[in-house]
Design goal:
about 80 residues, mainly alpha, 2 helices, elongated
């Protein structure tokens, strides 16, 4: 079988280096950050470690969920 040669012209500009792109994870693996999350210095001063940051974020999530307005289930105006 004969190989078909294709003449591909690269029309991208040199500054568009696609080799540096990363594929975004989909599904369950997407939630894992897999690396270090950097805090701004003023925020980092308040929290002694990662567990303190996680605890504060969980508290914020809980408070936000508790304070969301209840939707009008009966359709009252």
């Amino acid at each position: 079988m004969k190989k078909v040669e294709t003449d591909m012209n690269d029309e991208l500009r040199p500054e568009y280096d696609l080799r540096s792109l990363r594929v975004r994870k989909l599904g369950r693996g997407r939630k894992s950050f897999g690396g270090v999350i950097r805090l701004e210095p003023d925020v980092a001063e308040v929290f002694p470690d990662a567990e303190a940051v996680n605890e504060a974020l969980r508290f914020l999530i809980r408070v936000t969920k508790e304070n969301q307005p209840i939707s009008n289930l009966k359709g009252d105006a």
